[in-house]
């Protein structure tokens, strides 16, 4: 009721404004007043007829997303980080294109119906011409960050909302997108939103700079700041230049410097631009030589426009950097190298794998299901001196217990009823000269563990029914997703066998923990395309959802999800809507890991654990490190206390 009364009063104020009475606007901020005047004068919006929220069709939304595809991709990390900060305060996040169409969104699924009604949703249109005065639309019009709080909105439908938006400009200074945080409810006082403007501005600037660095990654870029300590970390000025010092593009701070320079020294022609040596009062050689001039790869220059000192570093084109670093990197081993790019845990695994590939030492590969243990075992085999020999993979969990002995060790004719009349060469012997890969080793029955131990110790195998052992030359690689320490403690696995198998351990990280998820997604996708001889584009919104998903089934689940999308997508591109439901994230592809758990946890220990998990963004590995226990132990404790992460359904499936 209160809202309806407020809406009526609001409408009356605006109707009076449309009739030329401006007396009621004395407390109104100038920027809002200008926008209201545009709404009634220019757009002819009728304040007496609030308009329903407009949400675009999937097809129309797709077109808008396409037009900012590259930006969406670059912005993702910033969008996720900002949302992680504002979600606990009850805010949602919108990224719109320059026309005010919401092309990316983060919000809580539990609030979806209310958010959709309010227009805080993927595809919602916040163009000032349609929605009236609002943070996004007015921000685009004014090209400046703005808070639009409650009754500052033009349309009476929106007056319970509070919204703060900041523009994101392209390297030419044109607004290409708007970053917005909004809440359905907020305190009445405008000051309650004071935190929002600097926060959204900061992230908009970071996204803008990330986009600049991405667009000009193949150019020389000067990065500068007035504080030496901040240049590498967050140098605010960016200017892309050519080798002769001419300016290609600049970010907001860089453009500001150029403008001041031009005001002081007006050019002889309107198209003439100052060069970098002119801007920094330097020789081009000094600028190009920055990296070797000092230990911290920074040099001080005088900015001619302001006479201020400024500290500058040089970012080299990515291609040139790659070439420079190539000679020092170790000799390529394609079978191993293609498994990862720049993930620290994978680097450690692959570094050790390189050393082990030609050794006879037994290797135990651990990691959650689907992390690629068999793929790594095969790569180890393919890259080592046994590559020409066979690679025999045995899944100990998949073979019935009654058959596993005969399968592994083989048997002579007539060794047991039901066997083949000619007998059978066991898998151990089939791996002669090559590698025997025993997957799910934790599931091997105890009696067989003793026999396997003998094979490893004596390097010979005794087929069923034989009275003489046969020598074997095999390398054994095993894998498990189980906690071997627990199996040993429970008497299910022989400790002596474990130590023999665990000559070295390679621990594969879960896909959700990998910093090179983008590379993994791309390579799995490319492999599927090659298999199917198809050419299909993976659109940025799909990539964004894939990057944000928790992947309880790891690379296997990823592969299945992409295969599903390829099989069901209508066109020659995959969008977020073509992915299996669980990977589409919360509304607008929000990473599930950011959604709050809604479970009631009663025990003290459970609550402490839940608080710790929440504080780390449900990073189980980090919590395990903080508590000094293993990850499986954290999962077990979560299960015991009923601590349910947002993505638990997948984790337990
Ligand atoms: N780096 C990779 N590139 C492409 N596909 C991969 C990669 N790693 C794993 N896969 C694919 O993911 C699936 C699971 O891999 P794999 O069988 O090696 O995992 P696993 O850890 O051994 O699984 P499990 O624990 O269930 O035995 C396979 O289809 C494999 O082809």
Automatic annotation (TrEMBL):
GO terms for biological process: regulation of DNA-templated transcription. GO terms for molecular function: ATP binding; sequence-specific DNA binding. SUPFAM superfamilies: GAF domain-like, Homeodomain-like, P-loop containing nucleoside triphosphate hydrolases. Residues 339-567 form the Sigma-54 factor interaction domain. The keyword Cell division does not apply. Keywords: ATP-binding, DNA-binding, Nucleotide-binding, Transcription, Transcription regulation. PANTHER family: TRANSCRIPTIONAL REGULATORY PROTEIN. This is Transcriptional regulator. It comes from Halomonas salipaludis.
